[in-house]
Amino acid sequence: MNAGRTARDRARAELTQEIKDTARRQLATDGAERLSLRAVSRELGMVSSALYRYFPSRDDLLTALIIDAYDALGAAVEKAAAGVLGAAKEEPAAGPLDSAKEQSAAAPREAWLAACRAVRAWARKHPHEYALIYGSPVPGYSAPQSTVQPASRVAVCLLGVLQRAAEAGVLAVPEDAAEPSETLVGQLQPLEEIAPGVPRAVLLRTGMIWAQLFGLVSFELFGQFVGTFDPADELFEAAIASHADFLGLGERVGQR
Amino acid sequence: MNAGRTARDRARAELTQEIKDTARRQLATDGAERLSLRAVSRELGMVSSALYRYFPSRDDLLTALIIDAYDALGAAVEKAAAGVLGAAKEEPAAGPLDSAKEQSAAAPREAWLAACRAVRAWARKHPHEYALIYGSPVPGYSAPQSTVQPASRVAVCLLGVLQRAAEAGVLAVPEDAAEPSETLVGQLQPLEEIAPGVPRAVLLRTGMIWAQLFGLVSFELFGQFVGTFDPADELFEAAIASHADFLGLGERVGQR
DNA sequence: TCCTTGTCAAGAGCACCGCTCTCGCTTTAG
DNA sequence: CTAAAGCGAGAGCGGTGCTCTTGACAAGGA
């Protein structure tokens, strides 16, 4: 990490980070639209043109912030899921066998719920960064290829939880789930590669739930709930519980 | 409508509409962020300052466009739902009694699905206007009170479909639906006033589904599905079908 | 009929924006 | 040691939202 060979390299890396930090701070106070290179450079005590040595354009700075945001959210969600799964894994011999089996059955569901809660918590903590990545895309701006890998981290993490559940044998394929059509099977291919072993019907449902999870968070954050579900805590809890049921992550195995 | 008393009033109304139309066109091509008063005035052949006689600021123009967008979407959804409900109402004596009853049972579900499809269709047809109302909120801008009524049109329409279903006795309260907590009952109050007769458990689920529906549309429109559910038609159909089941709008009454 | 009153488009101007180019200076690499 | 590359500063271009002033014009009362 500190492998900046020359002093110039180190200075450059530091200043690049400093620019991103100040930009992120301005993002939090004024929003993405009002983020201005000139204001950032002013706050840093340098002239605006010097900033172009580090980011070729305003959009490139935004792209860097977008990638950072995806990564931060992904890390938060991964940590939350791993926390539950790891904890359940570390104490397998705590109680009698029966209780241990129950625990390992409940762990994936709890990990799923924890991941969903982490998405909401991170979004509420960094609303402008969330808006940057899950709000309307910037007009002329089209997300460069470099964003797709960080962007997929949350989805990959959620799929990982389901795969763990499938491996542990606690993923009950919902009985009323229709087998996906031919077209859908093709579209599910990427998901299948990420989480082999998860039934296609569940993968399809994961696709829906994935989008819908962010729908809930976005509605809360963007103010669509004011007047009704203003603190959306309970609505969110009810929703992600029903999601877990819908995916076959029920603690009551086989139900529904 | 054409009650513009003086010629001046009429000219003013016309020009106001013309400004909105031009702005909407620019919105469709360049996005909200790049919408510029100067460009609008240039296209209209007037000087930029003259535009401030009609809209006190850029944000006010945006507000007008937002309200128009909410109204257009609301009208499209209402039309789609009414089309199904009206059609089912007009031919009650087409077949034998048994068939007629089946039809009236299926109508609310079809109306629900039609409304959801109308949301998606309108969004795909007017992506920038959709982004304006369901994307990230403009930074410093907070939605004025005048937007909340148009904003609620879609939700009211969806609730209306459910109420019709409840009145027709084809809304099967899902058996595994938990009764809302005290807090939630309070939050559901506004929904209850809009759609009296719909069970609270269903109202709660409607709140979730409402947000989740727009989550699906947003993910598709904002490019989150590229690489997987690229034409999202089938995913969307599967999702809204599961929504209808979830709400108790099943054609298979009582199931699930 | 004239004259007041209010509305209008136009223009100049302010402060800000993204971005480009040139100019010296310093650090690096050969 | 020298040439090249990287660096910050400054000037400048065309664009933006917005304000203020000015003069033309139409409507309505005396």
UniProtKB/TrEMBL annotation, chains A, B:
It comes from the Bacteria. The keyword Secreted does not apply. Keywords: DNA-binding, Transcription, Transcription regulation. This is TetR/AcrR family transcriptional regulator. Residues 36-55 bind DNA. Residues 13-73 form the HTH tetR-type domain. The keyword Coiled coil does not apply. PANTHER family: HTH-TYPE TRANSCRIPTIONAL REGULATOR RUTR, HTH-TYPE TRANSCRIPTIONAL REGULATOR RV1816. It comes from Kribbella lupini.
